Amino acid sequence: MLKRYILAPVLMLLLIAPARADEGWQAGVAKQNITPDGAMWMAGYGSRDHPSEGKLTDLWAKALVLQDTSGNQVVLITLDLVGIDRELAMAITDQIQSVHQLDRSQIAICCSHTHTGPALKKNLAPLHYLIVDSDQQQKIEAYEERLQHQILAAVDDAFAHRQPAELSWGSGTATFATNRRENRPEGNVPQWRREGTLKGPVDHDVPVLAVRDRQGKLISVVFGYACHATVLGVYSWSGDYPGFACAALEASHPDSIALFWAGCGADQNPLPRRTVELAKHYGRRLATAVETVLMTIQMQPLAPKLKSSFREIDLPLGTLPSREQIEANSRSKNKWEAARATMLLEKLDRGESLAQTYPYAVGSWTLGDDIDMVFLGGEVVIDYALRLKSELRGQQSWIAGYANDVMAYIPSRRVLQEGGYEGGSSMVYYGLPAHWSPEVERHIVDEVHRQLADSGSE
User: Known InterPro entries for this protein (predicted)?
Assistant: First the structure.
C-alpha cells in the first residue's frame, strides 16, 4: 500500500483548486528523475542474467497538465519504463484522482518501452519470477514504492506550475522503424533499405504537440513514434532512442520538457541496432523530425477544448489450459514457460480461477476540434494504428500503445492468423494463460469508435 506524503494545507489547496480559466489553455509540465539508485534487475529481455551496471542516461517520469476554458483537465504521464501493470497503474491513478479531483478518463500513462530500464513486480513477471533472489525482489519492491511517489510528485508539480498557454499540432516523418516480422534482423536491412525493398506495414508519422507560453516560448513538446525501443541490450540504464531524442529536444529548447509516447510499434524494430551510436543516431533523427515540425511547418492552433473517455473492456482469450496442462508446463525445460505455469498454479491453489477475459484499458482524448488521441494498453501491432487512422482522421488521429497497462502483445486478426511471436509465444512472458481470441481487434476498434462518437469527434 502506498503511503501518500503529506502536503501543507495551503499547498494542497493550491494543487487541488483549478487554475482560473480565461480565453485560452492552461498548461503545466514537470519531471522527476526515476533512475534507480543502485544496481538492480533490468526489464525487457529474457536473456538477462545479472543486475544492472551503471547508466548511459537518466530515466524520467514526466507529467503534462492541460486545462481548457471550461476547466476540463487532463494529465499525460510518460515513463522511461518497458511497461507497467494494471495494479500499479490503478494505485497511481487512484491517488491522482483523489488529490486533484479528476476521473479516470482524465489521466493517461504512457511508457516508452525502453528495454534498458528496471524490472517491476508484475510487468513481464515470468522473466524474473523464478530467477531473482530475495534481495533483488526487495529492491524491485522498494523501487516501485519510490516510483509511485516520484510520479505523483511530478503530477503535483505540473499542476502547481500551470500558466496560460497556446497549443498547436503538426506531423513529421522518421523512417528508421522497420517491420520486424517481414525483415529479420539477421538479414541485410541496410541493403534492402537502399534498394527500397523492405517489406511489411509501417507507420512513419511523428505526431507533434507544441505547448508554448503566451510569449511564444516552448515550454513542452509531446511527440510519438511507432517503434520498439530496443536498439540497446546493454546492462546500463538508458532511455534508448526515445531518451536521446528527448534530451536533444530539451537541449535545443532550454526550460522546456519533452514527452515521448510510444505508438503501435509492437512489430516494429529500429534496424540495424545494438550499438550506443545507433541509439543516439535514431534519437537525433527523431528529434530532427520534431524540430522540422516546430521550425519549418505551419503548425495548426488547437482551440481550448477537451473531452476525455476511458473504459476497461472484457477482452476475450482463447481456449484456457487445463490444470493438467499447466502442471506439465511447470516441468518444462523452457524456464519462462515453467515460471508462467508456476504462477498460474499458485493462483489456482489460492482458489482463484483462470479468467476467460482480461480487463483491457482503452482511453481517448479529443484536443480542440482537431486531434483524437487514443490510448491502448499492451504492445499493440502496427495494424491498429493504420486501421484507426484510415477510419478516423488520418494524421490527426494519434494512436498510442503501451498505455495504462502493458499486459501482453495485442495482435491484429491478421497477425493472430499468421502466428509467430507477436500473435502467440509472447504470451508466455507476460503470464497470461492463453492466446487472444481472434475477436480482439473487433472489440478494441469498436470501443475506440464508441468513445469518439460519444465525444462528438466522429
Answer: NEUT/ALK_ceramidase_N (IPR031329)
